[in-house]
Amino acid sequence: MDLFVVSKSQVLEEAGRLFASHEGCDAAQVAESLLARERMGSTALGNGFAIPHARLKGLRQAAAAYLHLKFAVPFDAPDGKPVSEVLVVLVPEQAAQDHLQLLAQAAEMFQDRQFREHLRDQGDADGLYRAFVDWPAIAK
Amino acid sequence: MSTSLVSLELKARILSDALPYIRGFHGKTFVIKYGGNAMTEPHLKAAFARDIAMLRLVGMNPIVVHGGGPQINELLDTLGVKAVFRRGMRVTDEKTMKVVEMVLGELNQEIVGLINQQGGKAVGLNGQDAHFIHARKMLPAPVEGEVEPLDLGFVGEIERIDADLVNNLSASGYIPVVMPIGVGPDGEAYNINADLVAGKLAETLRAEKLLMLTNTTGVLDREGRLLNSISATDIEKFAQDGTAHGGMLPKLDAALHAVRHGVRSVHIVDGRVPNALLLEVLTSEGVGTTIVPDDAPQFLADSRRYLGRVEGDKKK
């Protein structure tokens, strides 16, 4: 979706609202948890991509949402570039460390230029979803 | 009609998309090492000058450092100056040094002129100006069987750089264009490797970025695939295991030093792509390899810390 926001904190707030309406999470709690992780170091990877993530109390299983921002926003990325592609990941509080692998895989996907360009070319949610499912094929 | 509408929309979109980049890098200093094909092919030269003028006019502080490699050797050959090599390195005697200064001076004025034609206010500088590049004679240590250090003539290394001159020019809207000549305590001029001057200058100015134009697609892994982003530690590994070799080594050396001393990122840019600088600075996908310091936000390490920390706290 084309999300119109002007700052990193707005992105996290929007993510909170999204998870509130789809997963029944508490919007403010999600935004705060995401922000707490950002304080330990930006989750921006460079080339306009970021993976904000957080552990969340009461969450049964990991959940993710992909946000495409209409205009890139400042995100303290290692390459100094603003971010427009955001994968938000929430993991249950229990055994959160098991989900590190999930984040590592997502980060690896976004290291691949072809995959990044493929994602940017997708016009709708279906295309985006398929891109993630088909990743191994696209990477090849 | 409809195609012109689409193209208007696309044009507006592209211009508008540049805003977050212009905003993020406004007032930031970029040191650009200019060399390779980008400095010899007319259409690439013109595109480079446009990029520099544009970056300046949208509020960034570009500073150019250039070498003179192929042009210097060409003129030396034309003049019939005999080359003397020691340990594979060319000795710069007095006559050679005259030619080096001549070629660098001429190139410098050409670059200044090209940028100014595009509306920039470029100023040519030599390390002599205000004595801003302090150099000393480079004396590589003797190898086995030798007693004296290696004498390469007027080849220097940098002692330090005074940032004042470049900073003042930059703050007043000028674009410094620097040739790699430094001056020793005895007033003697020395020829210095331009990659090293660019790296040291970026470091002294605590630049946002050091951009090095090369004739390669970037840093490649062992299978020849382009590496998008690497860390300072990766560079050390590549130099040791032979992944990086040849002309890439001094560039990576300068890059490593720069990111370890306050430069936020270094970019090895493919200078054969027209407008490579604009693409690198104003779009999400650059053309080459980005090198970041080891203490840059480390996504996985931070995540491990984050996920581990909360669990650790719970056990208490």
Description:
The complex is a heterodimer of chains A (140) and B (316). By secondary structure, chain A is of the alpha/beta class. Chain A has helices spanning 8-23, 27-39, 100-111, 113-121, 125-133, 135-139, and strands at residues 2-3, 44-46, 49-50, 53-56, 63-73, 83-92. Chain A has one domain (2-139): Mannitol-specific EII, Chain A. In chain A, 46% of the residues lie in helices and 23% in strands. In chain A, helix 1 packs across helix 2 (27-39). The longest helix of chain A is centred in the N-terminal third of the chain and has 16 residues, at 8-23. Helices cover 44% and strands 20% of the residues of chain B. In chain B, helix 3 (42-57) packs across helix 5 (94-117), helix 4 (69-78) packs across helix 5 and helix 7 (194-204) runs parallel beside helix 9. Chain B has helices at 2-17, 19-25, 42-57, 69-78, 94-117, 164-171, 194-204, 232-241, 248-260, 276-282, 299-315, and strands spanning 29-34, 61-66, 85-86, 89-90, 122-126, 133-137, 156-161, 175-179, 181-183, 189-191, 209-214, 229-231, 265-270, 288-292. Chain B has one domain (24-315): Acetylglutamate kinase-like (Carbamate kinase). Chains A and B meet through strand 2, strand 5, helix 3 and helix 4 of A and helix 2 and helix 11 of B.
